[in-house]
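B., you asked whether I could sanity-check this one before it goes into the benchmark set. Here's the sequence:
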Amino acid sequence: MIDPHDAAAVASWRKLERERLIAARLALPSDYRAAQAQAIGRELDRQIPASAGTIVSVYWPIRSEPDLRPWMQAACEHGLRIALPIAVAPRQPLQFREWRPGAAMARGLWNIPHPADGADLVPTVVLAPVVGYDRARYRLGYGGGFFDRTLAQLAPLPQVLGVGYPEAAIETIYPQPHDIPMHGIVTGGK
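And here's what the prediction gave me:
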């Protein structure tokens, strides 16, 4: 058992749980991951109405995260504006830059691609990849605190949806004072 008030114990547990969950995600068959991404895309279409004022921050997939790039392209074709988050430095909030199909890409922190140019945007919807998530809609990420730090400064708070596979569900992430729950978690279902 972890004492949720012992920040050091929670941090240690999260590190080990992160490693376990990422290894499990990497072991998922590619056809399963692709089917999950398609199902996630259908659910996003249901939850995010295409309107001129909607700006959706998506993520560029790394480490076998659900690949929403086909959904991003279709969303653009249906009138949504898409932004990709840019981690500019450790312990700093994310920035969001508009992405369009065919956009020139650059590599940022941790070599993650982002649009090389384009407008800086403030998203109305944020899709945050999850390493793990719990029933209270708290997200276990990679441990850098980028999404929580960013969400804490956005006003008004956009709709925030965690995105991941059903296998990433855990009993609790042992939320700490800085953790911000998502409005929902979108998985492809089992």
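One thing to flag: The chain has one domain: 7-186. Otherwise nothing jumped out at me.
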